[in-house]
Amino acid sequence: MNVRDRFVAVLPWGAAVLSGLLLFAAFPPLGWQDAAWIALIPLVLGVRGVSLRRAAMLGFLAGAAFWIPSIAWLRYVTRPGWIGLALYCSFYMIPFAWVAAYGMKRWGSGGSFTNIGQMLLGVAVWIGFEYLRSILFTGFPWNQLGVSQYRNIPIIQVARWGGVYAVSALVVWINMAIALTLLRYVETRDRWSRRAHPELMLGFLAVVVAVVQGWRSVRMEHVPTESLRVAIVQPLIPIAWYYMPEQHDVIRERLEHFSTTALRAGTPDLLIWPETAIPDELRTSQASYDMVAALASRGVPILTGSIDTEWTDEGPRYFNSSFLVDTNGIVVKGYDKRHLVMFGEYVPLQGIMPWLRAITPITESFTPGSSSSVFRLERPDVSFSVLICFEDTVSSLARESVRNGARLLVNQTDDGWFDAHVEPLQHMMHCVFRCVENGVPAVRAANTGVSCAIDRRGRVYDVLDDGFGDTFIAGFRFTSVEVPGQDMPLTFYTRHGDLFARLCALAAMAFLICMGIERKRAGRTFFRPEAMKR
């Protein structure tokens, strides 16, 4: 094999890696959001003419090149879990590579109508499997392709209709349009100037329409709102201190210090502490309760995270909870986290395989809550719901809360388990889409992470940082949030949920089944390389 043949043989593998690295670049730490619009092009070009088995390998390689560095922050908790989860997520790119390879082998890239059909098919398969990744086995709804566009305010407004998956669809649509146009040029280069390219024009037309409609909705829609003034406390307490009883007084002193300073600086309508801010349990610890009640008696209700325990005949049940304490010191409402993190907050199958506990950092499993809670303030008249930790990445939870009457989302989190900058920023990006999808604002209070406010159009503001963009600090931040009233019209997404993504998943599965049946009738399988030689 000469040098040229070796280069040609290696080229598809290099293209797959390039796609994965471009996807990685679209998210923090690099955050080059424009890279997402071309990231899939090398993979689509690389699978042209290869067998389905090799296409699967290329898709998996592209996924690994994306996911391994993208969630490298997980190594601070579990290195085996980091690699295992990254490789698991990589499998979800295989169907896209399959369909791209199959479509170009079956229909080529020279026809406008067939190219448009392949674009639609590529979008359906990508979105379908992105959605399945987000819900299967409790789901991992992290870094969907559309999330990379969180700063692109006009584009992300399509999430009001199809959720974050609608934004992903736009990005995949453009990638497919450019890739197929490039292939068409290669195959008919001498007739390039004399042929129309409707696939490319339709690709950019969809983006133009999305941008125009996005700006129109941002500028023209006005909904009556109530102004809520919030003080966010970010104590920056090391995780290890919560496991050291001798540090619990120090934690309470730090919370009290920042809260007292905030109350002296102004009079907010609500004071928010982060997830599990209380070092023990609010309802059973006299010291913690007295501290919170004394602060609230100054005229400002406090929303705080705390562990909670319920005693049953079978023993204790632990909850990751949030409590609202009114100005009379009464705990008026509570919420128990519903979407728990596997191996982070509970150990699956621990009754059958108790050895699994040895690979996790937790000592006891939490119990999931059973329903959403809608908290209500009297002055001003504002209804809100809490999403604890990664719950703001789960779109169905935010949607359910808004349908139940919440007009503000509050995310209480502690990202101190991971690195100081990459994971917290990736986490915050997802909350932007919960706001746009449902047309409501959000406030985020982090122990370590990104504490900020997000308006109902997804614009992030009042970030608690050091003035130079570093959010790894302790302190407090005032913010004013415009909260819609109960008569706010619900968005299409709030009313119908992930309808678009489910339809894509059904279409993708139907096509893959038909593709498998056709190949079986032809006496071929997905994994016989001789079926589709280069």
Task: Give the arrangement of secondary structure elements.
Elements: H1 3-25, H2 41-46, H3 52-70, H4 79-90, H5 94-107, H6 112-135, H7 153-156, H8 159-162, H9 164-187, H10 198-220, E1 225-234, H11 248-265, E2 270-272, H12 286-296, E3 302-312, E4 315-325, E5 331-336, E6 375-377, E7 382-388, H13 395-403, E8 409-413, H14 422-438, E9 442-446, E10 452-454, E11 460-461, E12 475-484, H15 492-496, H16 499-521
Parallel strand pairs: 1-2, 2-3, 7-8, 8-9
Antiparallel strand pairs: 1-12, 3-4, 4-5, 6-7, 9-10, 10-11
What does this protein look like?
With 534 residues, this protein is of the alpha/beta class. It folds into 2 domains: 3-221 and 498-532, no CATH class; 225-488, Nitrilase/N-carbamoyl-D-aminoacid amidohydrolase (4-Layer Sandwich). 44% of the residues lie in helices and 14% in strands. The chain is built from 16 helices and 12 strands. The protein has helices at 3-25, 41-46, 52-70, 79-90, 94-107, 112-135, 153-156, 159-162, 164-187, 198-220, 248-265, 286-296, 395-403, 422-438, 492-496, 499-521, and strands at 225-234, 270-272, 302-312, 315-325, 331-336, 375-377, 382-388, 409-413, 442-446, 452-454, 460-461, 475-484. The chain has a 6-stranded mixed β-sheet. Helix 12 (286-296) links the parallel strand 2 (270-272) and strand 3 (302-312). Helix 1 (3-25) crosses helix 3 (52-70), helix 3 (52-70) runs antiparallel to helix 4 (79-90) and helix 3 (52-70) runs antiparallel to helix 5 (94-107). The longest helix is centred in the first third of the chain and has 24 residues, at 112-135. Residues 529-534 have low confidence and may be disordered.
